[in-house]
Design brief:
This protein has 141 residues and is mainly α. The chain contains five helices and two strands. The longest helix is centred in the C-terminal third of the chain and has 19 residues. InterPro entries: Asp/Orn_carbamoyltranf_P-bd (IPR006132).
């Protein structure tokens, strides 16, 4: 839903909008620019609510898909470490470069064909992780 084309533009509150949306679906996924908006809206929602980001709490499911991608790419997260500029100078062939995208100026497109470039596979894993999250919310797993 886009706030510029919804009833929000006509003055409808976030709480009322969420209450209406809850009547249309089995769950509500909300992303909002205002910090704590999702928590506030959840108090007025009779359906499960998934936080898709609010204010500085952007992409709360990103950590889930990151750990899932690491496990898919490497097999485990035990004993691994955070990549720093120092580590990159000694990068091994069996490492992966993950990024939530957009890449902006952080990753050169020339790196995309390197097998260690996992960011597009990571984005695909995000679909599976979020599907699993919805299945858990609906008690189907």
């Amino acid at each position: 839903m886009d706030g510029t084309t919804s009833s929000v533009k006509k003055g409808e509150t976030l709480e009322d909008t969420v209450a209406v949306m809850a009547g249309y679906a089995d769950a509500v996924v909300l992303r909002h620019p205002e910090p704590s908006a999702v928590a506030r809206a959840a108090q007025h929602c009779r359906k499960p609510m998934i936080n898709a980001g609010d204010g500085v709490g952007e992409h709360p499911t990103q950590a889930l898909l990151d750990i899932f991608t690491i496990r898919e790419e490497i097999g485990t997260v035990c004993g691994h470490f955070v990549v720093t500029p120092q580590v990159m100078t000694r990068a091994k062939k069996k490492m992966v470069v993950m990024h939530p995208l957009p890449r902006n100026f952080e990753i050169s497109p020339e790196f995309d064909t390197d097998p260690r470039a996992a960011y597009f596979r990571q984005a695909e894993c995000g679909v599976y992780v979020r599907m699993a999250l919805l299945a858990m919310v609906f008690g189907r797993c």
